[in-house]
Amino acid sequence: MRHPDQDAHTELDPGSAALELQDDLEGDTVREECGVFGIYGHPDAAAITALGLHALQHRGQEAAGIVSYDGSRFHSERRLGLVGDTFSRREVIDRLPGTMAVGHVRYATTGATILRNVQPLFAELNAGGLAVAHNGNLSNGLTLRRELVRNGAMMQSTSDTEVILHLVARSRRSRFIERYIDALREIEGAYALVSLTNKKLVGARDPRGIRPLVLGELDGCPILTSETCALDIIGARFVRDIEPGEVIVFDENGQDIHKPFPPMAPRPCIFEYIYFSRPDSIVHGRSVYEVRKAFGAQLARESHVPVDVVVPVPDSGVPAAVGYSQHSGVPFELGIIRNHYVGRTFIQPTQAIRESGVRMKHSANRAAIEGKRIILIDDSLVRGTTSKKIVRMMRDAGAKEVHFRLASPPILYPDYYGIDLPDRGGLLAATHSLEEMRELIGADSLAFLSIDGMYRAMGEPGRDPANPKFADHCFTGVYPTHLTDQTQIEPQPRQLSLLAEAS
Q: Where is the catalytic site (predicted)?
């Protein structure tokens, strides 16, 4: 979920030095904030949750947390950094006893990565403790927050997830699950929630199913998590996807299912297939790897030019490049080698480092590209800064021609559901023509996957404007839910917290 420390739109200044460095090192791509995991009734609940979070590390690399319950008390460990930085240590897992646990990995959109924003968030309610892990973003979170604060609520974080805790607390229903559903009725946007009480593990998915949530089983114990790859790492069995709008509860009496919302046509996020999910995950019955290969094959159908080799921008462009190569018959080559050990901790934002940022993360494999016409394949293009430097790197390594292909359509609109994208002014495709983008990047040609081609690669005949099958608003501007925070006449607060906290 988003953590709006800076302003109402929770966007960074695209011209800032920090963002330039982030672009250099992390690439021209979209980012999604978090992954969730929960297990009920297993003696090694915390250790299993830690393993699950390892598998979800790609969904968030800035912070991780686990809350467990041992029958009498909740135990919480929330830390900045990677899962392995904290949760690979036996003494940490030993501080998380119990047979129930929920976990979270986080990527912060804006503002400082501070401990009070790290999930799962926990609150002491009248009925007992409640820990919540949230993947997504509430499109009315700021509006609800302002209303709650006006009515006396005291916010301890700048996360929209905290709004959910307050909504549960203020419900006057007698049963916990009724109070939980009351809270869900007030929020809008995208959410996959995994929550823990002293008796229950609860999962919930937004009515459009924008964010993913799956059910698994290990040794007879239910698991709720963002992706099937988190089940695979612990040897768990995939049971099914949690349905859009479904609330599922596990306790000592077994499983209970609630469907409190009117049925709506599902609109899962298309970026789960383009970028977010791990290639070895199965999302809504589709292999992410096979879908990305199909994107590449469709690209070859739509925009192929004579070249000698197909080169992926690692790692995100690899499956699409495989598909492009297989369909076109052009050899696949690793023309760019990625250094997986470049971290943020030792990178200082000096001009010299900014200039060499891409070279530290990506190196040209001269033997594969010198003297050749190449097609570069990447998953998406946001601002163009890294793409420009990679094209220049290919030319410096002796490439005769450099053609750039993107395995998704042009990103034209911002996201309000948990994807870290700038406003339209920071999106290259929203402010430049195709030819202007090609010239800026320095490629011999530039092409994106068409929207209909993207749908065809997904097994659909094309995009049906009357009933789109996916949340594709970043390409089309057609949003699947209300955007209350964006339509308020009253200006939103530009600063959500007065507290500056050391990280």
A: 34 (nucleophile)
Smallest CA-to-CA distance from 357 within 110, 112, 21 is with: 21
Amino acid at 462: G
Q: Which of 128-132, 154-158, 223-227, 440-444 has the lowest mean pLDDT?
A: 154-158
379 is in an annotated binding site: yes
Average pLDDT over the chain reads 89
Q: Is 269 a catalytic residue?
A: no
- Long-range pairs, 317-322, Cβ under 8 A, ≥24: 317/376, 317/377, 317/378, 317/379, 317/407, 318/279, 319/279, 319/289, 319/292, 319/293, 319/295, 320/292, 320/293, 320/295, 320/296, 320/377, 320/378, 320/379, 320/407, 321/296, 321/377, 322/293, 322/296
Tell which phi-psi region holds residue 84, choosing left (phi > 0), alpha (psi between -120 and 50) or beta.
Answer: alpha
Mean pLDDT of 357-386: 89
| pTM reported for the whole predicted model | 0.90
Q: How far apart are CA 394 and CA 389, in angstroms?
A: 9
Q: Is 415 part of any known ligand binding site?
A: no
* 25 CB-near residues (< 8 Å, 6+ apart): 342, 344, 347, 357, 358, 360, 361
Strand partners of residue 37: 103, 225
Instruction: Between 341 and 137, name the one with better pLDDT.
Output: 137
Q: Is 75 helix (H, G, I), strand (E, B) or coil?
A: strand
Residue type, 161: T
Say if residue 469 is exposed, middle or buried (CB neighbours under 10 Å; 0-12, 13-18, 19+): middle
CA distances from 417 to 192, 268, 304 (A): 11, 11, 34
Query: Coil, helix or strand for 219?
Result: coil
**Phi, psi torsion values for 401, nearest 5 degrees:** -135, 145
The tokens describing 200, both together, are 């229950």
The mean pLDDT value for 61-86 works out to 96
251 belongs to an annotated ligand binding site = no
Three-state secondary-structure class, residue 173: coil
Q: Which of 433, 156, 393, 199 is nearest to 148 (CA)?
A: 156
Q: Please state, in angstroms and rounded to a whole number, the distance separating the CA atoms of residues 440 and 174.
A: 61
Residue 261 to residue 245: CA distance in whole angstroms: 6
pLDDT (0 to 100) of residue 419: 86
480, burial (CB in 10 Å: exposed 0-12, middle 13-18, buried 19+) = buried
Q: Which residues are paired to 35 by β-bridges? A: 105
CA–CA separation, 411 vs 197, rounded Å? 40
Neighbours of 232 (CB within 10 A): 18
Looking at residue 124, its pLDDT comes to: 95
